[in-house]
Amino acid sequence: MTRTAALVPAAGRGERLGPGAPKALRELGGAPLLVHAVRALAAATAVDLVVVAAPAGSTAEVAALLAGEPAAPRPAAPVRVVAGGETRQASVAAALAAVDDDVDVVLVHDAARPLAPSALADAVVAAVRAGHPAVVPGLPVVDTVKRVDGTGRVLATVPRADLRAVQTPQGFRADVLRRAHAAAAASPGAPATDDAGLVEALGLPVHVVPGHEEALKVTRPLDLVLAAALLARRAGAGPA
Question: What domains, with CATH codes, occur in the chain?
Answer without folding.
Answer: 3-237 (3.90.550.10)
